[in-house]
Structures are given as C-alpha cells and as structure tokens.
Amino acid sequence: LNHIRRKFQIADHAEITIEVNPGTADRNKLQAYRTYGINRLSIGLQSPDDRELKILGRIHNYEQFLETYRSAREAGFDNINIDLMSAIPDQTYEGWIHNLRTVAGLDPEHISAYSLIVEEGTPFWERELDLPDEDTEYRMYEDTAAILGEYGFHQYEISNYAKKGYECRHNTGYWTGVEYLGLGLGASSLVGGKRFQVTADLNRYLVFTKEELAAGAQYEEIHELSRQERMEEFMFLGLRLTVGVRTAEFERRFGVAMEAVYGEVIERLLKEGLLEASVQTDSHIRLTEYGLDVSTYALAEFLQ
User: Fold this and answer.
1) Is 46 helix (H, G, I), strand (E, B) or coil?
2) How far apart, in whole angstroms, are the C-alpha atoms of residue 17 and residue 20?
3) What does the pLDDT profile of the chain (304 residues) look like in tens digits?
4) Which of 108, 58, 122 is nearest to 85 (CA)?
C-alpha cells in the first residue's frame, strides 16, 4: 500500500477493502490493516450455523467469526461486509431466515447473500447432496430483501444489501463499467477498453526482467472489447443494480439510442414483467422484483 501511494494518486477517502476469513485475523493483524489505510473488511462467514459450516468444509466456527468481528470493531473498522450463503445442503427455509436475522442483528454495514452453486469438478459435484428444492430456494431469495429491510438494509444489486451510504464502491464500479487496474499475480484489469490478466504462474512471474514488465510481458488473455461487447456489458452488468441503467448514459457512451439497439428485447421483457421503465427524473430501465428473481434469463437476453 505504501508503494502504491508512491506511484499513484489515491483519493483521501478511497474505499480500501481486504477480504478475511474468520479466525485468521487477530487483533494485531487487524490493527495493522487499519494503520496502513485499509478501511473496509469483507468477512467470509457463509453461515452462523456450525453444522452448515462443516458441510461447506469451512475451517472456522461461528465463535471464531464473532471474535474476528469484535476485534475488527475494536480496531476501528466501521465498514464491514459479511458474506452469507443460502441453498446449502440440508438447509431449510427457516434455517436461512434464522441465519439472516442472526447476522443482521450484529449490525454490519453490508451483507452479501448468495446461493450455493455446485460447479462441475468440485468436491460437491461428486457427492449426493440434499439440496433445497427449487421452490424453497426461490423463497429464500425472494424473502431476503424483506427480512434485511427490517434491519435497515436495502438491496442495491442482485446479491448485495447495504445500509445507506455503504454500497460497495468497487462492486458498483464494476457493474457500471468503471475501469480498474489489477496488480499482482493473477490480477485482472479493464483499462482503455481492454481486459487483461497478470499471469497466475508464480515461477514465470518471478523471472520477468524490469524491461519485460515495462513492456507488459506479464499480461495474458488480452482482449480488446468491441463496441458490441461494451454495449452488452453496459446492459447485463448495469441491470444487476436495482436502479438499473440510464438510457441517456447509453446514448452518451455509444452514440446511439438504447431503443435502436435493444428495443425489441426491452419491449419483450417489459411485456413479460421482467423489466420496468421509469421516467420520473431520468429515463431508467431496471429489473422488476420478478426480473431479479429470474435475472439469469433476463440478462442473457442482451447477449448476441
């Protein structure tokens, strides 16, 4: 961080986040984070139920999380996110609601609540799992916003809930096309309309000369986004946000009206009840509550 400050201009009130796992950050480490300017923590709790944590293969228990959380508050962190996972094997609807209330009652500033996705090639893929059925998983998601709303959280993105003023700046920037620079092994970037990634091969990374690094030899998978790809990302990333996308911003960026490119798709999704338009102060297109529930389908409609 000191080196970054020597090389870059960092805003005085920049949001600087670090992810920590419960039980791995003691008071001294957390205090060191604050001393060097980290001002936001994201803690990967996943569940306050020790049985569910064991099912997920996590190395911590809930008491260890609480110790980390309390230590973070004592170290001066006043912007904390907690990750929660739903649709865990053997989890009931009532269990999920209990988990939400337990964590919301701790009064963090932000909660990320997302469902378990079983990916091919992972240990879960090979196991016989007693997962909640589709209707139960739908109820879990649908009721999350209402439950967290009771505690002062508002849903600003498909899986993210925040107290007013604590929406994650990095995430919001990502969904609205703000450029970002990734530093270090395996880091991804979006700069100048290009996506690229630093090699994830440590041995290769370590032998680069200064001249090779200056020439960008560490970057892999360099892809210059076409105009079509940038328009698609504007739509399917921007619509993840509950405020949706501004039609005027689309025209400013791409020099063409949104309706001229996506009018047919928008009209169809409006009729299906997945999108709604707002013209009170500025023309917006956003997902309805139903659209958020089936966002995978709705967002895919903007990809050609």
Assistant:
1) strand
2) 10
3) 999 999 999 998 999 999 999 989 899 999 999 999 999 999 999 999 999 999 888 899 999 999 999 999 999 999 999 999 998 888 999 999 999 999 999 999 999 999 877 777 776 666 677 777 888 888 999 899 999 999 999 999 999 999 999 999 999 999 999 999 999 999 999 999 999 999 999 999 999 999 999 999 999 989 999 999 999 999 999 999 999 999 999 999 999 999 999 999 999 999 999 999 875 556 889 999 999 988 999 999 999 7
4) 58
pTM of this structure? 0.90
Hunting for tokens 């798709």 — which residue is that? 265
Pick left, alpha or beta for residue 256 (phi over 0 → left; psi -120 to 50 → alpha; otherwise beta). Answer: beta
What lies within 8 Å, CB to CB, of 183 at 6+ separation is 4, 198
Which one-letter amino acid corresponds to residue 143?
A: D
